[in-house]
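Please produce the structure of this protein holding pyridoxal-5'-phosphate.
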Amino acid sequence: MSYFHPPYASWGWPEYQAALIACVQFRVHSGPDISELERQLSQLLGGSQVFAVNSGRTALRIGLEVMGKLRPQCKEVIVPSYICPAVVNAVKSAGLKPVPAEIGTDLNLQLNSARQLIGSNTLGIIVAHMYGCPADIVEFEKLTREAGIFLVDDAAQAVGEFANGQMLGTFGDFGILSFAQSKCMVTGESGAGGALVCQNQEMLMTLINQLQALKPAQSRGRAFAAFVWNYLFTSHTRLATYYWQRICRPSHREIKQEGIANLDAKIALCQLKSLKRRREERIRILDSYAKYLQSVGYAICMPQYELGRYLARAMVLLPHGVDLDRCRRDLQLKSIETRGGYPVFSDENFVSSSAKEVAGRLLELPASSTMSNMDVALVCDRLMEVLQGNNAFMAPRL
Ligand SMILES: *Cc1c(COP(=O)(O)O)cnc(C)c1O
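Below is the modeled complex.
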């Protein structure tokens, strides 16, 4: 039986070849590919200043620290209540206070909710483009300019996408990109790459000093091997993965603040080259899911879907009352690996009703570039079987 899993990375021979060359030439840690990557990313992003680092969170934390120094009296950063926990942690480790705000039906930060939270302690807003779906970043740029606060354009999941004809990651004061697993460009697991995109001239000098002090990431050869084994060969290595992970993974998953390694930059260059093709493949699969799910006649929706829109992940919103964990277990028994959504981020003053509404019902379906339309239909059929077995209340579409 075929085994389907969420897309971790879409790699071909060029990525493996690049890794091999980096090893043979002893250019795993440092080498010329780092500055070449920065140059090509800058070109993609319309000439912005780009600094490659080892992860999105390193970029975010350093950017936030520099922002914080410019307005030391302001400590609050508004973030979406539905967000990758790494963002919340980066805000905290920069010595700042994350303040959650509501999300809209597209799972992105809601403009009005963020506006209401702006106060005299607000340093800035982090806007993320959830699963690649562009947020209302143009409006956020206006809002933050008027309020005199910073804007961070978190394009970790949306490299190469744009809003209003402008590349995501280039709005506001600074942006971040990530090359971790399941993003648009993948060089390995979290810690294998990311970038900071700077627009704010006031931040630039301090940023350059901080970034130049970073050492290139260490142990990248081993991390590369672990990634290939645990993620890319997962259909073959599932049983053996557990033991490998115990041997190969550091016990704590804290990511150090480091520069990008040359090995990862070299792989990133291959991923940049295939970005457009992989984008088109993803759109085909998303369209196929949307068509098929609509034809089944049940109320399962893809909240961010729009015909022809790229999304980094194929997320579906299951009907109310579904036991998500059970559903995922049942799908696993049918050789379909899935993922849930992020946990809701709330604080003592605010629990987001919008994020709570959806977080427990979001399910990520497999969407590897090798999947045919028949495979998509198969995954959907199995999902229906599982939901029916789950006694879920499957309201027919009106
Ligand atoms: C993945 C992600 C990050 C962090 O990127 P890493 O490279 O894993 O550190 C930040 N923001 C968002 C929205 C992300 O999805």
